[in-house]
Amino acid sequence: MKMERTVMTQERHHTDHTNKRMEAADEEMESLGLEDLSKKQRRKRLRYLHIAENRRLHRKEKKKEYKQRKKERAMQIQAQAKVLPAETGDSPGNQFQEIPALLTSAGNGAVVTTAGDQEVHMSKLESQKRIKTKLEKAMEKGLRVVLDMSFGENMTQKEASRLAGQVGRVHGANKLCARPFHLYLTSLVQDGMLYRECVRRNDGFQHFMGVKQTAKHFLDVFEKKEIVYLSPDSPNDLLELDDDKVYIIGGLVDETVQKNVTITQATDKGLQTARLPIELFMQRQPGSKGNKILTVNQVFEILLKFYVTRDWKIALPVGLPERKGFILRPDSSIPIDVLNKQGVFPLEYDKNSDWGEKTSEDSEEASSSSIRVTSRQSPDVRKCADVDSKSTTYT
Fold it and tell me: Which residue out of 220, 233, 237, 254 is catalytically annotated?
């Protein structure tokens, strides 16, 4: 009798425990939204939730490791700051100039590459000031590069959207370069589809720093003798960049890949044309079927890299994706006179000067005039800042 009561008590406890587990499982399923799912769907959902939870824990662990590394880096820099005067014998004044940039990199910082290809650690605010200074100098004396947006009327919305994304990447690359270009967007009508797509795809497009936007055609802004229109169909190889020239990149996204579109427009207007020297410095890998058609931002990035290196063997691989199957030619297959000019800078080009650093001359010029128009600009350029204020924005 006593044994029967013991068995019944155990069964009752087991039943209560089972009921509690079932109630808990029902509540959990209800909280996860599983009560209305079939067994197969529930299993899929639970598998997904398990994977998502593992990813969340992994991100949490990585974030913890990053904070630990940042803390160790800050301690290391502080230790270096204390030891450096004793090791180098520098005065406290010199020490103060070198260490703060390193210290700020341990917090909310950025890495900036100078004209000499040196990495400088600085805070985000200092980085933004540096970018602003570079772009201001670019608008005064930088090489002028134009994105011709006159093809926008003939594009579909999808093509216009892709071009707008490329414009954003052009602006991003220009900001980060040690020697940015003075960038123009011409034939960009504010009530047009292409302008609306640029605003939609790029936050703050109307206030892009270092970019001049105008509804005028580039022939109404620059003199014809200054213009060089870049086209893949041109017979002329672009071997050098001249600061007195204006280089036009056709803002064209054509999914059907129509040939001779840009070269036809340029020759009809009697303009000089040139193409990137891809065939001169690069060759296709065996079996590759890639073409030489590049996007707007790829052409722009190649020009940026060449301007600061003066070497097409360095610049061309920057913009040519690997999927196109191009590799550099051996030096023996490149004309010797062209090869000897690679890496050679013009006499007037100071490759060690840093546009990100303000000088005393810059401060005096900024106080006397907010915008300086150089002598090599045409009269129409001087008018643009005052006359065409609705369609032209200095940012």
Answer: 254
Please state, in angstroms and rounded to a whole number, the distance separating the CA atoms of residues 16 and 12.
Answer: 6
The tokens for 387 are 């006359």
In tens, the pLDDT along 24-56 reads 666 666 666 666 778 788 788 888 888 988 888
Three-state DSSP class for residue 354: coil
Alpha helices in the chain (DSSP H): 2-32, 39-88, 92-104, 124-141, 157-176, 193-201, 261-268, 278-281, 296-309, 312-319, 336-340, 360-368, 379-387
Q: Which two tokens stand for residue 158?
A: 């999808």
Helices (H), 179-275: 193-201, 261-268
Q: Nearest Cα to 150, choosing from 194, 113, 116, 182?
A: 194
Q: Decide if 220 is catalytic.
A: no
pTM beyond cutoff 0.70:
no
200 Cβ neighbours under 8 A, 6+ residues apart = 161, 164
